[in-house]
Design brief:
Layout lengths: L6 H35 L6 H8 L3 H7 L3 H24 L6 H16 L1 H20 L1 H21 L6 H19 L6 H15 L1
Helix pairs in contact: 1-2, 1-4, 1-6, 4-5, 4-6, 4-7, 5-6, 5-7, 5-8, 5-9, 6-7, 6-8, 7-8, 8-9
């Protein structure tokens, strides 16, 4: 005989599913609002009140998902890292495996400081990164791994150590990007080429 799910359980299941979708939409709006407020005001430390107004939500909605502003900033950072990872993977796709992919990965990271819109979105995290990493080490580690993962495979194919060499390249590229963002500078094509050549020589 076919099992029949009780009506109460079916209704509760539908309610929870609907609530989950609604909550996911709230989080998306808050993350987008965080980026929008920082970009519009130039603030690296946006106020919760400004974020919820931008999202069209309430303080109650904000604190339903985040214990405080730093948790939202971590969510924004994680969202940005996932987007960056997808962007880098797309840039690397179809290239000869190894050195060409490493070059494209480094160029893609530094493009975050060369592109004006990307720079405005990324600058707050260049400034707040150490504080967020201190408070949320595991979350930051996972976000970072999304970005460095495609580089590891390329480094291995180029004959390097996919862990130590890839980590060293990651830190060089990210530090160069962060320094430029903090100083509101734009790395030149020559700067990017020099860093890339340096990294490739290190594993050649």
């Amino acid at each position: 005989m076919q099992n029949v799910v009780p009506v109460a359980e079916r209704v509760a299941s539908r309610t929870l599913a609907g609530r989950s979708e609604a909550y996911a939409e709230e989080v998306r709006r808050l993350v987008d609002a965080g980026f929008a407020v920082m970009r519009r005001t130039g603030s690296i430390d946006p106020r919760v009140g400004d974020i919820v107004r931008e999202a069209g939500l309430s303080n109650q909605a904000f604190y339903r998902h985040f214990a405080g502003k730093d948790e939202l900033l971590v969510a924004c950072l994680d969202d940005g890292q996932h987007r960056l990872s997808s962007y880098l993977a797309h840039r690397m796709a179809g290239l000869p495996e190894g050195a060409a992919q490493i070059r494209r990965w480094i160029e893609g990271v530094l493009e975050q400081a060369r592109n004006e819109e990307a720079a405005e979105n990324t600058r707050p995290f260049a400034i707040h990164g150490a504080r967020l990493a201190d408070r949320f080490p595991e979350e930051i580690r996972r976000s970072r791994e999304h970005v460095v993962e495609p580089l590891r495979a390329a480094v291995a194919l180029a004959g390097g150590d996919p862990h130590r060499d890839a980590d060293a390249m990651y830190h060089l590229a990210i530090a160069t990007m962060n320094d430029a963002l903090v100083a509101r500078a734009r790395p030149t094509k020559a700067d990017v080429a020099h860093l890339t050549d340096f990294c490739l020589k290190a594993i050649s």
